[in-house]
């Protein structure tokens, strides 16, 4: 028996991007069907580090990031839980003087956006953050950046969308999508046929399939950030911190565990599954003991990794298709999509309902890749960019 | 043989020892890695230092086997590379990652025998996290290794052959056993009669523990259901139901467990295919009768491939080694292999019957109060888990872990995942086989943050 669905909007991929779009669209009164090949919020959106930070983003991303910044404190009202979101502050550390020079320069560049960055030289940083130790050349602090629990936040967006009337089909992969006279026809799962007016491609690291089906492949590759978590320990680290260059980032969750990341894991034979790398994990552990000597007797209890889409210029694709009316893409967040995702959902809603959005997204157009020579398409993202 | 890397054995219990012996006999020099202080594994665990207790004191009816295996292993030492006190915490492709002397080491392998044994299977009940509650295995380890008991007045509770065995070992060592409380009905024990044809010696020994306990005045009760551990800071007693009545018994320690669960995380990390086993209510690596897995060059032996007991562990250890030798291109005695396969089948037949005699309490979920802590590491209660299942209409174990925190702590589900699976399957009326299994992830046990690069 074929199950048939029709909706104003069909969304492929129930990560935080797709789920927040579904919720926003439902609130705008459109009918929505959200599909995920696995479980909503179980991929990158559910297993990431949980950094909710604006600091360190490219200028192009800051308006988007600022929009998200307005949404995060409203989680309780939007999805029923606060998702352990807190504006703990985000501390960016410089290991070397030249790194600190970059932080100073960044603070100058982004002044107009009002991130209120505070700069500290190494010694000052250790006075202001007395739990900090080791070789620190300087630091930049963004007091209103923060952290949240991805495991809870991302599935909760999907649940809120469902509670608001969206049809949510989990374990239902979209296999094929074609343009019809008045929209799209999709095949999904073992037995689903879907028709819709608008189609949103928020399939994360898998999104290139649909982009390619509509003749606009993007040079999307995959990265597998490597993560480590300790046992719960006394609360001591009040901020989320990351090192310039991306080699180390760390936060302590309310339960007391330190979550830390850095370096890359690797894909298994089935590239949908990945493993953290031991070399990366050991490097992260070593750095943690230098920065936080109070962790000397602690144990780590688990390593993990997740699958994230990477684009060569470290910016995502967000916006309308360059080939197909009614199709919108939002993917390839390069290790930093958690914070911006709720705003991306809102922007997708703007685009579907009114054809435009007040948030500048021109830099994220998929058309920037349309005329790329094929060899360029293969180039992977630099491997030391920032995840968190 | 054209292998360039020596074969590696993880685990020096009866399975690993027999595998090592077989490989050495074929002219190979295996690396044997074991987390323990001294080789022997669980049943033949040795004291830290020789403390004057004889093999009979320590191993009772199995003393001769223990002595033989220890002697055999000591005799192998010049022909193997033995790494005691070394924890294998990850397998990445053809590399083992281990911690020894507080340092990180990597060992490449072409052929690997995993003989990692088992740990107690636990089901929570109110108060099970109070100081003074131990697993049966831990109660036995305290006695064997350190020569001490877990308390002055100990209740033994649960189901499984270890229940009677360890209670008897306590009595024999001069400990005071307050009672043996079996969660299975007496009638279940009648199944042992049909085990006779498989292993009369073992059945007689097993039955003799109950008789000897009774003759020493230890009360045995059947069909018991623990309702709570009494005491607020530490164990002061146990309340339990027997029939319709609730009883209380004073004690200062409780040893409990419901048979064993195999340690399969390393097999999982090495990429082995798993299947659900109805009898053991858990997922087991798929192997052929000699212990070959779906992962090239990875062999399984002993309780880590499915609970079958110490004698079966010896058989499967030898079989896995012979399979490894055969696969590397050396002929092995086919008569020996088929005799071992036959012997292994008999042991499996025995196992089926033991499972009936010491059954899993499959009505556990119906009677467990919501406030019971299900995950002790993360302090997640049964009702939180049930609410999470209902709230998210969850049907899959990893998802339940992610959303409830249950299984996310120090033990990574090694202790609580059996109970988690029971709760999920009962709440959603799904078969245990249909709710998935927790994905293994390194490290298989907690590692010190200070772990330093060592060598390879
Ligand atoms: C380990 C790690 C750490 C990170 N740390 C941070 C951080 O601290 N801060 C930060 O801002 N960002 C971080 N990120 C990045 C962030 O997690 C992602 O950018 C963001 O979650 C992307 O959301 P998404 O919805 O696009 O992708 P996903 O969450 O991957 O969702 C895509 C979904 O699409 C589904 N799908 C794919 N193909 C199909 C199909 N054909 N049919 C149906 N469904 C399909 C998938 O199953 C998946 O659920 C991290 C990422 C990782 C992996
Ligand atoms: C606590 C306990 C007590 C038991 N007592 C008895 C008993 O008294 N009588 C009886 O008949 N049966 C007993 N059993 C059952 C008994 O374990 C088995 O029948 C038998 O020991 C199985 O042998 P094996 O070689 O498969 O595993 P084991 O004897 O368990 O040996 C496994 C070895 O592998 C090592 N190991 C495991 N994982 C790793 C790792 N990641 N890295 C390094 N080393 C590792 C362990 O330290 C251990 O030495 C007991 C089981 C347990 C869990």
TrEMBL record, chain A:
Keyword Oxidoreductase appears in the UniProt entry: yes
Broad EC category: oxidoreductase
GO MF annotations in UniProt: sarcosine oxidase activity
Residue ranges constituting the FAD dependent oxidoreductase domain according to the UniProt record: 8-351
GO cellular component annotations of the record: cytoplasm
Source domain of life: Bacteria
PANTHER family: FAD-DEPENDENT OXIDOREDUCTASE DOMAIN-CONTAINING PROTEIN 1, SARCOSINE DEHYDROGENASE-RELATED
Protein name listed in UniProt: Sarcosine oxidase subunit beta
Organism name: Phyllobacterium myrsinacearum
From TrEMBL, chain B:
Protein name: FAD/NAD(P)-binding oxidoreductase
Signal peptide: none
One GO MF term: oxidoreductase activity
Lineage: Bacteria, Pseudomonadati, Pseudomonadota, Alphaproteobacteria, Hyphomicrobiales
Chain segments annotated as transmembrane: none
Record-annotated BFD-like [2Fe-2S]-binding domain positions: 375-425
Domain of life, per lineage: Bacteria
UniProt xrefs under InterPro entries: BFD-like_2Fe2S-bd_dom, BFD-like_2Fe2S-bd_dom_sf, FAD/NAD-bd_sf, FAD/NAD-binding_dom, Metab_Enz_Cyan_OpOx_G3PDH, Opine_Oxase_asu/HCN_bsu
Alphabetized UniProt keyword annotations: Oxidoreductase
Pfam family, one: Pyr_redox_2
Domain FAD/NAD(P)-binding: 8-313
